[in-house]
Amino acid sequence: MKKSKSPPAPKTAALTAEQVASRNASALARVADMDEPDKLRNLMANADRMGVLPVRDAAFRRLALVQTDAALDVRAEAAEEIEHDFTQTIFAYEQLVREELGKAKRLTKTRMAMTKSGAAKALTGFAAATAEYGAFATLMERGLSDMTGEAVILRHAAAFDEATRDAATARLTEAGIDPATLAA
């Protein structure tokens, strides 16, 4: 008995540059209204596959914000801004690790330090670290310097002593980032 082969699916016509730009702009506009992590991850994967980095980056940032808002709503209705920024940094790094490893990995020690002694104290340890730490390098490689712990320190400079601010400034400067562009 001969197997019947179905005819190949018809190829869709290639999109014009205008159609591609319109599609990308539409996807970018939708990102701000999305609030489901799985849908944002799916959009990120599709944007990655199609090489649309602005959509991927917008979805990545929105994912970190959505996760942060959900986590902090559970604990306190009005969390401090520094805690909000630091939690967003944690979620951003965890997402990058998830993409790299193919499975979720949480920053348990960092989360415990923040819960136990507060975001400012936990961030002081980031700036004081003498060795390069993985989260900083990973975020910098992805062009997310504004999501590093050092950037959070500079945005909330009043919560830190001069030595901590100087250490954060020095690390960012050494990495080729102008700290003035990251401060509040």
Keywords:
single chain, 9 helices, about 180 residues, mainly alpha
- Estimated share of beta-strand residues: under 5%
Which structural class do you get from the secondary structure elements? mainly alpha
In round numbers, the mean pLDDT is 86
How does the overall form come out from the CA principal axes?
elongated
pLDDT < 50 runs, ≥5 residues: none
Rg, Cα atoms, Å? 20 Å
Number of helices: 9
Main β-sheet description? none
Number of domains: 2
Give, in order, the helices and strands.
HHHHHHHHH
Helix content: 55-70%
Q: Alpha-carbon distance between the termini?
A: 73 Å
The total count of strands amounts to: 0
Q: How is this structure best described in words?
A:
- The chain has 184 residues and is mostly helical.
- It has 2 domains: 18-79, no CATH class; 82-184, no CATH class.
- 66% of the residues lie in helices and 0% in strands.
- The protein has 9 helices and no strands.
- α5 (108-117) packs across α6.
- It is elongated and about 70 Å long.
- The N and C termini lie far apart (73 Å).
- 30% of the residues are buried.
Question: Helices, strands, pairings?
Answer:
Blueprint: H1 17-31, H2 37-50, H3 53-75, H4 81-101, H5 108-117, H6 119-128, H7 134-141, H8 149-155, H9 162-174
Helix pairs in contact: 1-3, 2-3, 3-4, 4-8, 5-6, 6-8, 6-9, 8-9
